[in-house]
Amino acid sequence: MTALWEPWRRLPPTRPFGSFHLRCMLDVYPRPHYAFGVQQAALLAGRLGLRDVSVLEVGVAGGAGLVHMQQLATLASEATGVLVHVHGFDRSIGLPPPLHFRDLPYHWQAGSFPMDVDALKARLSPDTNLVLGDLAVTVPEFVSQDHPPIGFVAIDVDYYSSTVAALGLFDGPDQSLLPRIWCYLDDIVGEEWVLHNDQVGELAAIREFNESHDSRMIAEVRGFAHKRARSAQWCDAMWAFHDFTHPLYNKYIGPPGGHLELPVA
Q: Where do the domains of the chain lie, and which CATH numbers do they carry?
């Protein structure tokens, strides 16, 4: 399998090989987790009868991920007919000082991952929304504004405290969210000395979010890696937000004719 699969990995993302959906399936794009998340956001929005959807990167740093996300958004819009809007959130001045042990100060340092704002803005399209400032302020402001429903979120803010603020995105009204949202959680799989667990870091913030909400949760997607063309570490970092009381949560999105019964052998 690997010998057949690897040549497709070496193709540049701009080379016109296959469809957007095929390239997502084969993990051709440099950030396959972003490609999958953006694709799935557009597909779900379309199946729900929506014309627009938002995809977010929380923790932009140098901006390579956000630039790639806006490229993927264009491809997904062309492939699905759903207009994909891109938003990026960052402090722009690097990590703040850690607040307590849950921020894993033995692993992260204040000031890491600063942004060259002018250089990044020069690489972004006019339609990409770059939101700068403390997440504790910018996230509630964004939630209070009108925007197409969120369909994919990539969270890479390292700290427990910053993740708590980022998860405020899921406290918005139903119309600001798709009923299910793929989430890439960068800091739940790390180096061997980090020892991630649900008492510290991103996993602690997710656990507390779930404990404090009755009808919304962020959960693992069991068996996801086994459904990919090639299992990869990023598959373990793809979880899903559920809004169980969302008016569209129970809307059928499966095959048009329903699920056919397999013939008996």
A: 2-243 (3.40.50.150)
